Amino acid sequence: MTTVTDAEALEGLRDALGQLKDREQVAERLLASSAKHSFDPDKELDWDAPLVEGKWFWPPELVSLYGTPMWQRMSEEQRILLSRHEAAALASLGIWFEVILMQLLVRHIYDKAATSAHVRYALTEIEDECRHSKMFARLISRSGTPYYPVSRLHQNLGRLFKTISTTPGSFTATLLGEEVLDWMQRLTFPDERVQPLIRGVTRIHVVEEARHVRYAREELRRQMVTAPRWSQEFTRVTSGEFARVFSVAFINPAVYPDVGLDQREALAQVRASGHRREVMRTGAKRLTDFLDDIGVLRGVGRRLWRASGLLA
């Protein structure tokens, strides 16, 4: 039987206290940033301004069909229309994901001291995500497009994931949902080809999501050191499966017939598009580099991430 000496126990206690102190310091900094740099989209954005004729709703290079034979046959007007519907589909996906995230955050803090900075920041992030979901919903309505829910299968997979997810698994999924879209939005908000309202929405989201990413990264790094081995392995597998689900959900097939395109042909061309694969891998690279560094991308999980198309 392996015994733990008093010195080893003391060292373990010091490490745990150090991690708690670090967690609180990060949360305090994020709370201070939230106080200075948070936005009310209802007041910050001009929702009544008319949409600008000829402006895109998403940078053309990020539209799913960009560079495909079908894209070459489309008129400029139809390309912009597709960007309009894909922006609405991404906003719809964002709402789905943020509702999941809010539930995971509430579960994360359920048994933690409500007076801690770590919990207070989690509650602050939930406030942010509520505003973001309302902002995305208002954007969809203002764009004059349908709301594009994820498929029934993905709805049910989301329910399953929320039920079985571990704490490190939850934070891995959080980063997956935030960082790929964040990369796209960082290209969108300074792009003068894009509608001013879209640029305003993405600017708000980028500023506030930067704090969420920091919070999730710091906690996941700690969790991948302190969590039991079974939890770490489970996180590797479930994160890979969620990456596969997320990469499929990133394109909503319903947008194609809504803009007059053949759905089957469009999906086939997107799957064959080298440009689209590069966009998704580039968007995920900062995240996959981080996950690789902290030991998430190993074994079966790594193979699932490759199957998702987000990892080369």
TrEMBL record:
One Pfam family, short name: AurF
Alphabetical list of SUPFAM superfamilies matching this protein: Ferritin-like
Highest taxon above the source species: Bacteria
GO molecular function: oxidoreductase activity
Matches recorded under InterPro entries: AurF/CmlI, Ferritin-like_SF, RNR-like
Protein name: Diiron oxygenase
Taxonomic source organism: Streptomyces sporangiiformans
